[in-house]
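Human:
If only I could read backbone structure tokens as easily as an amino acid sequence. I am handing you a single protein, as its sequence and its fold in token form. I hope you can help me see how the letters and the tokens relate. Thank you; the sequence and its tokens follow:
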Amino acid sequence: MSDVAGRLVDYYEREMAERARRPLGEDRERRLAAFVDTARREELASVVEVGCGAGRDGVVLAAAGLAYTGLDLTPAAVELCRTLGLDAHVGPATALPFDTGSFDAGWSMSTLMHLPGDDIVSALAELRRVVRQGGLLEVGVWGSDTSHEWTDDGGRYFRSRTDDELVDLLAAVGEVVAFDTWSRFADGGHYQWARVVVGG
């Protein structure tokens, strides 16, 4: 495990119980509800969540009737998800332990911006591999008006990209059919969300 990954695991091992009690926020809840509605309308049966964390999204997805599978780098997160009755696995976003075309949909929020360098390219390629052609993928990350990287006081690495940079990366996965931002800060930081129809 790299130093970056090790620091992330250390941070989230300590913080996971508190995170489980934290509300998702209005924007994230709205996007999650819309994802569920789309999955029902398009008769999508299964979803993989990369970065399942404390299972806050996972319980909603599973309760909606989707066959849910979660993955997280942090063992404490996976154990917490399992106590909630969720199918969850320990592993990296860059090497998903699932068969090609295993899922109808993918969901990843506030996870991929922790990958150093260009590891997000590998993670997105893995999501494209495990979500079937024509499937639905929704991704959310913290981005910025300028591309940069930093490590916070808790030891977590972040890589922020501009809106255009993120859309370009997602275009390698499929057709970006929706893109939005919210929670804008004075320094240009903001949350980025995208919906992608996975290509062949």
About this structure: The chain has a mean pLDDT of 95. Strands lie at 46-50, 67-72, 88-90, 103-109, 131-143, 148-151, 157-160, 174-182, 190-198. The chain has six helices and nine strands. Helices lie at 3-20, 26-41, 56-63, 75-83, 119-130, 163-171.
